[in-house]
């Protein structure tokens, strides 16, 4: 009886702690949304930002955030897939593999501001890319690659060994087994990890302050030359993202409605991050259900 009472007491304490944490997070989300949603309208979402006048929008910053996200994923996904497949399917146990995994753990724990300073020294200064989208995307790749690699490796490792044995028993090569059997089976976890990483990339600020820049030049939507600094598809132009814009508005405060812009921008950023996280769960469940029914 004493053990049962102790178990109930400990369980109640754990539920209470979990409830307090959830309540704090819920109140924080509600506070940001309640303060920011009244400031959101079509003009705010599509209009250009203003440095000294009230009534500016976040159109360019919002576009820059999505464009930078796409460029980063184009670089990150092939690298993380290759590294995850190697570590899961081909790497033998030994000092080299342990060293690689240790490096991944260290890189995944680095503060984003450190990655930003690294990106500034290497990509902005050394490679002479300047403050640009490509510099920001490469810095975010360094920042996000360890987590994506670990997620893909874990997803591949969760595929039961009988799936691999079945592929090899049919006479196909190890590489074909990985491509046609293991990866499709691990796809729900891989896609979920990529979508969650997208939310992390979308909301990043510290690493981009030193790499992508703190200004958002006007874009010429009729200019599709990728080498032009005014082209929407150029990766060599400065690109202030939405997260950096929030930091800049709060730190400089040169516009009369800085509080309104900051609150509205924070609410938009939070809404998109929530969409990324919720869609990750939805897509993962749908893919898992589809693959299960097909099997």
UniProtKB/TrEMBL annotation:
Biological-process GO terms, alphabetical: phosphate ion transmembrane transport
This protein's record includes keyword Membrane: yes
Subcellular location: Cell membrane
Record keywords: Cell membrane, Membrane, Transmembrane, Transmembrane helix, Transport
Gene Ontology terms for molecular function: phosphate transmembrane transporter activity
Family of the protein in this entry: Belongs to the binding-protein-dependent transport system permease family. CysTW subfamily.
The protein, known as: Phosphate transport system permease protein PstA
